[in-house]
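Sample 1 of the test manifest.
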Amino acid sequence: MRRETQNVLLVLLGGALLKIAWTGTYLRYVKPSLLPFLAVAAVVILALGLIAIARDLRAGRALPAGFTGAAHSDHAARSPWLLLLPVLAIFLVSPPALGSDTVTRSAAMPAVPGRSDNDFPPLPSGPAPQLRLSDFVARAVWDDAGSVNGRQVRLLGFVARGAGGDTYLARLVITCCAADATAMKVRLVGRSGLATLPPDSWWEVRGQVVPGSARQDSRFVPTFTVSGLAPTTPPPETYEY
Amino acid sequence: MALPAGAVAPVTPSPWRRITSLEVLCAALVLAMLGQGPIVRILDVPGLRTGATVFVAVCVQAMPFLVLGVLVSGLIAAFVSPAALRRALPRRTAAAVPVAGAAGMMLPGCECASVPVARRLMQQSVPPAAALTFLLAAPAVNPVVLVSTAVAFPGEPRMVAARFLGSLGTAVVMGWLWARFARPGWIAERALHRPQRDPGRGCWAVFTETARHDLVSSGGFLVLGGLTAAALNVLVPTSVMASLAGHLLLGVLVMALLAVVLALCSEADAFVVASLSMLPLLPRLVFLVVGPVVDVKLIALQAGAFGRGFAARFAPATFVMAVGCAVLAGVLVLGGIR
């Protein structure tokens, strides 16, 4: 591949990364704390491409010897073409955040956050406090004091379908990027029409846990008795961290 | 800017102007834009959609680390002379290897960062064995990884010690083995070839040109690794992890293979295996030691930087050694299988 083409590819790649950092779509792929590193990386890639283009122009369109890819043209020549793939994926396809497909795929994986102690702070007061789904599951599994038993809470998540036709409310938890997403979910019961909720639709669900339902044989998935549900828009941060 | 006399290529007037990669790129971009609708429709299958998201995620996650790596590589090329590196390392290779392993603690990045740096070190006449030890140690024993392991296993501080020992052991033993048994031709010629330093170029030009060249040559292989990792992430059912309870030997082997195909970043893998509470600690430790030193993304990067022949020898050997060191560290530190 020619040096000019490589530089154009670098500019495109840096531009693509800058775009997802600027518009916030990077939250579909990585966690928020990566933003400064992503922005710096995008600017550096752009700058390396632009500096090389400027240098070539000043040198009068002649290819500088020595550091160009020409000396390594045998193997390295074709691989830079692959850089076009993420560029096209970001600009043209812009893949959506992970959703129910990932939950269904990892159905057999029990996702229980490890804990060193089973002391949870008391639930926020009020009639039905809103809890993070991963927080709720951790309490349902680990809390010896049973802080969620008998309490109405509100959970936010998307609908996923289990292999046996069960309906789940789920959130994905990521540590680094979407490749390591693990599913947190509760099984919804206690209302007719739950089975017709479309997968990947977002809901705020009100209800309470069935005490003792998050056990080894249920793969630590709590059962949740629904008393009310309202459609909602996906939050800007679709993952929990 | 001064250019060598022969650098200006004579423009040969030819009736058939050759189609260059620049034109091919433009054509590809136009085609992709015209075909956007059909492309998006083809990808609108749940499995493919998930795969596309994971692919972009792996690339976006790894790019900052790769950029860090090429910048460090550029800095070394521009400002650190081979003589200074020789002074910093012990003269004997056998002694230089553990020093390089300890130096790995200072680069807080994933394997994407360490590959360009290791290649640059080799070009600045650091013994390949020491540079390879650095390559294996850096992603596994840096402070960020150790802290995240401690956070993921709150009740098991010995897991951190076992991971540290297993990973550092793998890196150092591989370095010694390389120093003892490797043949000169195993690393591709182009990897060791030091670019001729043009007397007309200042440090800034050397720095930017080296970083640019490394970014272009490793970036493509990073994308290849991301593509493989995304495909395997969707195709390999992670649920096999959950069915390994009670099979220790099988557990160790399957977890080691999963570490290779899933290619999780070394700051996240601890959180993934921490949730597998039905598995004993030993198979989970094997996953944590193997992942940062051999995975599909890293194999692609190594093949790009050092040649396919290198990757075909080095990756399997590292795999065996990492499993061995992990089991040994597990037995010593964790006190048996558990």
